[in-house]
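Example record used in the benchmark description.
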Amino acid sequence: MTETKGVPVDRAAEILGKSQKTILRWIQSGRIPARKVKVDGHEQWRVDVDNVEHNVRDSTKTDALKDLLAEKDRRIVDLLAEISTLKTELADINERLREAHILIGQQEGKLKALPGPRKWWKFWKR
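Model output (structure tokens):
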């Protein structure tokens, strides 16, 4: 009597919604558990149905998480580039403000602080 525990590759492909070639690649890479058995004098792969869905589900979750992390990394790189651009613009604005204060100070003979915002309760005073 030959042992036929597990399902053939074509049935595993139906269960997982993949092609038979994909199932065979997964078997070769060790992604899903399988073993060769003799059926009617021929060797066939049998996929362990108890573990296949669990492994594929975990693998699918892992792939989804890898995709999310890759997207997050791309977003971080984009944000870092944007921050660098903003820092450069801010440095340019600060330099122009320094130059403007120097010009104002030279014209008036001293540096003057710019007036701050008025207090809200003094809205009637000018």
